[in-house]
Structures are given as structure tokens and as C-alpha cells.
Design goal:
There is one protein chain. The protein has about 290 residues and is of the alpha/beta class. The protein contains nine helices and 13 strands. The strands form two sheets. Strands 1, 2, 3, 4, 5, 9, 10, 11, 12 and 13 form a ten-stranded mixed sheet that branches. It has a three-stranded antiparallel sheet with strand order 6-8-7. α2 links the parallel β2 and β3. α2 runs parallel beside α3 and α3 packs across α4. The radius of gyration is 19 Å and the shape is globular.
Length: about 290
């Protein structure tokens, strides 16, 4: 059952050293504020799952929170490499990083399998590719009905899912609108969940055609953090800050500049720092 609380309390209660954590959001509604709180609380030895790891995982890797990454494609979208990610892989700084790489299709299927309580995902995939050569968790099985060879990977069953959404009501129902990734599946596949939202309202508004509502009984902790997806965007509230993604390339290239930025903007601040980026539009996403 959903519990409305502060972000600090939500992270403290739900994310522990050694957990497997999925922070999801596909270009849209990426949970930056929650990521910063995990870093502030000094979590270590995390296994992170994510389709398209970007800035949030670059920051967590660079701050020594991560031991393993399960992912499909990692980079700074539209800009280039993730330098802290690259430093960990190439030079084991600040810690060695174990990698388990998949395709987008495999990641999505693994989340769906986890959400359905299945032990593995079975799908058509990895045909003619090289990922099975470097990832021993990619298997192949033969369909007992058609004889077709299919790919199989373990289902994603994180300890915790962390997402950002536009709204939750006071009963704990969460509404997500706009571009969706695998937020719904990640929450349903996980043992626990933390959801940050732009606002908490008395009642959820009329749904847009693409809206998803997570009922209160599927959600763990909810924290209101206006602006909590910045510099990604929250449809109906604020746009993507493309300039910051470009700035991050220079910030993260150097270890000292990275640490200086993290100290000034994460370690020395709290989630209220995101409020300055929050929009004033509270209409249903268009």
C-alpha cells in the first residue's frame, strides 16, 4: 500500500546496500532527484538495472555506489559517452564495474516477465548478434510446439524500482502521462518501489489517451518532489534541458570537476533544490 512520505525517508526505508535497483524513465520522467538522494545517503554495492543508462547512472557510478550494471545501450543522449561509466570500465575508477549487456527488446521483455511473476523472458531475439558471446545469461531454447529457436533471459525482479511521475492522489494512486518507458513494468516486477511526483492532488484529473495509473496497492513510497525529473522533462510541467546534457560532457570528463559538481549540486543540497525547475502547468498532459 502506498505511503506518502519525504524523499529522504522513502530512500532510507526502501534502498539498502547491496540491493538491485531499477531507476527507470525513457528520456521522459527520469528520477534525478531520487538518484541524488541515494547518493547523499551513501548507498554502496548496488546492482543497477536500466534501459539506456544516462546521466543518473553516470553520477551513481562515479560516486562509487555501483558494483554491477544490467543495461541496454549507455550514453549521454545526443552528446556522446558517459565518462564516469567509461572510467569505471576502462580504469576501474572509483570501483570495478561488472557489466551485463542486453538489447532493448530483451530488457523490455525481462521487465514484463518479472511483472508477470515469470522466471524468465522468452522472445524472438539475438539473431545474428554477438551479445550472446559476451553475456552467458543469454540462452536459447526450442519451442516445444513449433521447433523454433527462441532467446531466453532471466526475468528482472529488482529489490526496488524508482520512478518519477506527474501526479499522485492522496490515496496513493499514481498517474503517468506522455512518453512511457517501462516504469509500470518495473514497479510491478519489484519487491518495493519509490515514486517521486510533481504534485499530490485530491483526485487524479481526466486521463489522456496514453495515461497509465498505478493503483495504490501496487506502489510503496510516494514523495512529492517538484522538478524531480530535471534535466529530463515532465510532460505538462517542464521541457527537457538539452543544454545541461551538453554541459555534463565537460563536467564528467575530469574526475576533479565531476566531484566538485557533485559536492556543490548533490551532496550539499537536498531535493528542494529541484523546485526551481518545476513548471506551473498542472493540466493533464496533452
Amino acid at each position: 500500500m502506498a505511503r506518502i512520505t519525504s524523499l529522504a525517508e522513502a530512500i532510507a526505508a526502501n534502498i539498502h546496500d547491496g540491493d538491485t535497483v531499477a531507476l527507470e524513465g525513457f528520456t521522459h520522467l527520469i528520477p534525478h532527484a531520487a538518484c541524488h538522494e541515494i547518493i547523499r545517503q551513501g548507498r554502496k554495492s548496488l546492482t543497477l538495472i536500466r534501459m539506456t543508462p544516462d546521466l543518473v547512472y553516470d553520477q551513481m557510478i562515479g560516486m562509487g555506489c555501483v558494483k554491477k550494471l544490467v543495461f541496454s545501450w549507455g550514453g549521454n543522449p545526443g552528446v556522446g559517452s558517459l565518462h564516469r561509466f567509461r572510467d569505471a570500465v576502462e580504469k576501474q575508477w572509483p570501483l570495478p564495474l561488472e557489466l551485463e549487456e542486453h538489447s532493448h527488446a530483451a530488457m523490455a521483455n525481462a521487465y514484463e516477465a518479472g511483472a508477470a511473476g515469470q522466471p524468465c523472458a522468452i522472445f524472438r531475439g539475438y539473431i545474428g548478434g554477438d551479445l550472446p558471446k559476451v553475456n552467458p545469461r543469454i540462452k536459447h531454447i526450442t519451442c516445444p510446439f513449433t521447433g523454433e529457436q527462441l532467446a531466453a533471459i532471466p526475468a528482472h525482479r529488482p529489490d526496488v524500482a524508482v520512478i518519477h511521475a506527474q501526479r499522485a492522489d492522496k490515496a496513493g494512486n499514481v498517474m503517468i502521462e506522455g512518453v512511457l518507458g517501462v516504469q509500470k513494468e518495473a514497479v510491478l516486477a519489484s519487491k518495493r518501489s519509490v515514486v517521486t511526483v510533481e504534485e499530490i492532488v485530491d483526485e487524479l484529473p481526466a486521463r489522456s489517451l496514453n495515461a497509465v495509473v498505478l493503483p495504490h496497492w501496487t506502489v510503496g513510497a510516494i514523495a512529492a518532489v517538484p522538478g524531480g525529473a530535471f534535466p529530463s522533462y515532465a510532460q505538462g510541467y517542464y521541457p527537457r534541458n538539452n543544454s545541461f546534457y551538453k554541459q555534463w560532457d565537460d563536467i564528467a570528463k575530469d574526475r576533479d570537476s565531476f566531484h566538485a559538481w557533485m559536492k556543490a549540486n548533490v551532496l550539499d543540497k537536498g531535493p528542494e533544490a529541484f523546485a526551481q525547475y518545476a513548471g506551473t502547468r498542472h493540466a493533464a498532459a496533452e
